[in-house]
Amino acid sequence: MMKRAASAVPNEVGANSTNVDDWRLERLLNRLPKRVRSTVRFVRQPSARWLRIPTGVLLTVGGTPWFLPGLWMLPIGLALLADDVQPLRSLRSRTLDWVEHHRPDWLANGCRE
């Protein structure tokens, strides 16, 4: 009989729930300008948590004044924070479900340069 480490089971569940969103999030990231896209991918790496949280907070705060042209920063900041904050992760998943059903063209394979 094989024994599993107790810590492996929760990680598998977490990995499965984020893998569902990853392909959709990657497709949306492909739509970003190249410099922004590469920066977001770097910050989303697991080893960059120390950088991801402050970056997500700054982007979210910077994107909240809707009358400024920085509104694009709000969803990117929330998506970055969702990697570390469970309630935002479920919000991101629901948002990506909505995008998949109502705006499937946003998930097209095209890559912006």
Which key phrases capture this entry?
113 residues, mainly alpha, disordered N terminus
Provide a descriptive summary of the structure in words.
By secondary structure, the chain is mainly α. It is globular, with a radius of gyration of 16 Å. It has one domain. The protein has helices at residues 8-30, 34-43, 49-63, 73-82, 86-102.
Structural class: mainly alpha
Oligomeric status of the shown chains?
single chain
Query: What is the averaged pLDDT score?
Result: 77
Helix content: 55-70%
Q: How is this structure best summarized?
A:
By secondary structure, this protein is mostly helical. The protein is 66% helix and 0% strand. The chain has one domain.
Topology record:
Blueprint: H1 8-30, H2 34-43, H3 49-63, H4 73-82, H5 86-102
Helix pairs in contact: 1-5, 3-4, 4-5
